[in-house]
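Model: Ready when you are.
Researcher: Fold this.
Model:
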Amino acid sequence: MARYSLAIQAKERLLVNSKDIANRIVEAILAQKLMPGARLGEQALSLLFDCSRTLVREALMQLAARGIVQVSSRRGWFVVQPSKIEAREAFEARKVIETGLIRSAGAMDKTTLKRLKQHIQQEKTALKQDDVGRRSFLLGDFHVCLAECLGNQLLADTLRDFTARTTLIAMLYQSSHDAVKSCQEHIDIVQALERGDKETAERLMAEHIGQVQSALQINAAPADPLAELRQALAPMSPASVLNKKQTKTPARQTALSTLSSPSPSTYLGALL
């Protein structure tokens, strides 16, 4: 039995590991295929990846440490839903990291510039094909690619997580930032780097991240999660009661009038 278990574990290591699972989840977020708050069931993931729940749990624990997922004793594992404060902090962190990378980078060689231009060409192709998932992934991955091209893999890995979080934020707070505009801003940054104008590239990056952040409807009133239930449980109209007895005392009429126009703070639906 122990030998069989070891054989299964060895097979899993050959086919998939926890890092592969974690990366696939992050890629799905970048492609806007996993929404904020989406539940990640261990059993379902183990079936999808054809591996044990232990391996899935390892991947989810890695993502929890990176701030991508959370676990609840009642709900299980689910994709994070960043708060407004966390949204601001995520964009501020990205701005510090990405502008700092550009500022401290050396001159970019032809191979590196070619890679960035190829990435932008992929963005343009996805835009023409109206491939929303691939477009979203590539627009986010540009920043990771740039960090790699600037020679810092550690910060590139960090940026991948921050970009995933800001993608969730954009979905949660309904970003209105245009994808075509975002691609053009990437082009402008690469052109500045190609000219060796790091100061302009740094300024353009700060503006780009700032514009993406300002496009969020972060101050809009949150949707009422109980709207449907609130409407269903609103009190019935007392019109039928009024029709039965037309002659009422003023006090009674006042009471019935109050019932026909309930205050939001007094009727059952408002308390739910």
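Researcher: Now this one.
Model:
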Amino acid sequence: MKNGLEDVIAAETQLSDVDGAAGRLVIRGVSLDHLVGDARYEDAAVLLLDGLMEQPLSEEDLRRRLGQARAEIFAHVAAIDDGLLRLPPVDIMRALVARLSDAADFASALRLLAAPAVFLPAILRRKKGCEPLAPTPSLSQSADILAMLDGRRPSAEKVRALDAYLVTISDHGLNASTFASRVIASTGAGLTSSVLGAIGALKGPLHGGAPGPVLDMLDAIATQGNAKPWLADALDRGERLMGFGHRIYRVRDPRADALKSALKPLIEAGEVDRGRVELAKAVEQAALAILKERKPDRPLDVNVEFYTALLLEALGFPRDAFTGVFAIGRTVGWIAHAREQALEGRLIRPRSVYVGPMPKAA
């Protein structure tokens, strides 16, 4: 038995390959470093979904139909009431997604891709006491998300940064939420059920809920000179350093470098607090040094969460919404895996080993 299914192969996939030893992520035959430089969200969606739907896909057609789907989805924003607003953003998003029909065709997939992109900005505006803003179908997915968030046409630098994030986290092997999506799809349930199950897995702090605490750590450290003693004290207390270490990667997470690069245009455009960035760099250097000293036999390097936190903060998302933004990007991967599993037509049904008491002899 493998606790946590460590190293157990549970599926064959053409969607993504995570090489933890080499620190490499390949999505549909394209390495992340090549993909994230030029690709927009729509490009990644076409790459992942092509061949898995009932019709051929093009970036232009997907962008047009995705814009229309955002406009249709906006009607569900009216369901955000005071009771829902007491919940965390990702829980409200999940409740709204549950309103969608549970089919498996391309139209349903488009609505599910559009839904978190529309719902999260509306939720955040309602939590601030503002009215939600309707989508603009002619905009790209990333541009529309940012426009619905604050009502202004976003800069090209911000749109590129959000595209880079959504592309970077679009798929990542058989992680917990993706596995949940495949298990549900294997039963014959529709795409909405698969996405809902995946959101439920994603919201756990061991999966998609960690970028916010990276900012809490930076706030607590406050100054570059305080980085080393603060980190040493945290390790002395047995605490985990947020943004460092990964279950799969034994070297640096390639997504961390992709997002660090995506921050540079924002810094040059004055869209990011340079002091915040310099503090983060100092914390990164100090953390890597102290982790190497304290845990020489356990490779711990920067993971995707560290620069995710800085990038999403710069784009105007509050830290309690970071998991929701993650869901916007990862939904396309969940749908692709759900379709791949459904087309295989095999129910996922592992066995368990019973370790409880046996019935007493009569």
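Researcher: Key takeaway?
Model: Strands lie at 16-19, 24-27, 30-31.
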